[in-house]
Amino acid sequence: MIKNSINSSKIPTALFILLPILFLCLALFKLYPFENTLFLEKFYDGTPHDDWDWYALYASEIVTTGISTITPPTSWLYGQFIALCFCIFGETNIPIYILQSLFLSISIVLLYASFYNKMGKTAGLLLLFSLTLFGFLDVFKYYTFRCLSENLALFIVSLFLFCFIKGIERNNTKLHIASSVLLGLLCITRPNIFPFAIATIFIYAWYISNYKKTIVFTLVFVFTILLQPLGNLFLIQSFSFFPIERLSTQSGGYFLTAFDFSKAYRNTMSLFGFMSFTSPEFRWRPHWTVMWILFVIYCINKIKSKVKFEMWEIISLTFIITYYAVILFVADPDNGNYGFRFYIPGILIVLPFAIISASKIGKRIVSYFNKL
User: Is 57 helix (H, G, I), strand (E, B) or coil?
Assistant: First the structure.
């Protein structure tokens, strides 16, 4: 039974206005005096550069010549996003960073709107605070002001979960189609999300129990991911079809150690907040450690209760498991340039479980002291 402790539907609506305004103000403050720090001519010296440099170079070539001699580091869709921004605003990074700040704030609102009615009022407010805090500490502070695809991936996955969860709960066909499109866009934003997409099709089929709708959902997904090979055919004269493209030849670290079990332990410890396993320069992220402990407690209590997992739990847990299963075995922990950005798209999805767990623990503590 879904709790509706937060009765006012105006709360998410108000947040859609207030949080973007807050993050917009923070972005404008950080970007002032609005100097363009993107100098594309420095990228042509033939030396290696970071991903955010190559995304900008890729986008610049598309806007200037209509085709590109390079491919974006990993995310095809993010390359198109940068190219679109260059086409509209010129070759400057300021509008990109402002948009990414807005994407982050909207992602927080979407995740809150997806999960707040799965918990009590106090827990819902704690969820909102935690999403905002984690978003600021882990995304806004380090990655919003860089041209990195995780900024777009977090926004799309938040929008997908909102549409998928609400679509199933309300049996809304339009939201079903929207979630299928977003699922395809996720795959051409971050390749490691493809296993989640396959699992999602089966989850959708299970809950809908309608083969016609399942076929439509699958076809829409397939046609959406076809945007990448068709786009590549036009932009770089190569029909490169996701997810096979460059999985074995990608340089720079992401697929360099494909399924290297020897490094999975270090990645796992980093995911739990102990970032020194990635680089001695990185500090411990205690809020991650606490979050994962609460998440594990939630899962253990759920299994012990022998209560069936609800749809929103299944789709969220599937994303967490499939997304990080690939990351832990594929990401190269020795490539310090990547920091912890690989983990970002899934971190905020873990939070609702942690908050529900914390809320239950808090109630038990209060109940215990009341009996004294």
Answer: helix
- For the stretch 269-317, pLDDT in tens is 989 999 888 878 888 999 999 999 999 999 999 999 989 999 999 999 9
164-185: b (≥16 Cβ within 10 Å) or e: bbbbbeeeeeebbbbbbbbbbb
Q: How many CB atoms lie within 10 A of CB 348?
A: 25
- Of 266, 268, 247, the residue nearest 258 (C-alpha): 247
- Give the Å distances, CA to CA, from 122 to 5, 162, 177, 288: 9, 21, 33, 21
Q: Which of 114, 133, 101, 153 is nearest to 12 (CA)?
A: 114
Q: Determine how many CB atoms are found less than 10 A away from the CB of residue 84.
A: 14
| Cα separation values, 156 from 16, 153, 246, 339, Å | 16, 5, 23, 21
Angle between helices 173-187 and 150-170 (to 10 degrees): 160
State the greatest distance between any 2 C-alpha atoms of the chain, in Å, as a whole number.
75
Judge residue 1's burial from the number of C-beta atoms within 10 Å of its C-beta, 0-12 exposed, 13-18 middle, 19 or more buried.
exposed
Per-residue pLDDT of 32-79, as tens digits, reads 888 887 755 555 554 546 677 778 888 888 888 777 666 666 788 898
How far apart CA 184 and CA 171 sit, in angstroms, is: 21
For the entire predicted model, the pTM comes to 0.88
> Could you tell me how many residues make up the chain?
372
Instruction: Using alpha carbons, select from 271, 236, 263, 303 the residue that is nearest to residue 62.
Output: 236
Structure tokens at 287: 């809020």
Q: How far apart are CA 165 and CA 154, in angstroms?
A: 16
Q: For residue 222, what are the contacts with CB-CB under 8 A and spacing of at least 6?
A: 184
Within 10 Å of residue 246's Cβ, how many Cβ atoms? 16
Report the C-alpha gap between 111 and 349 in whole angstroms: 8
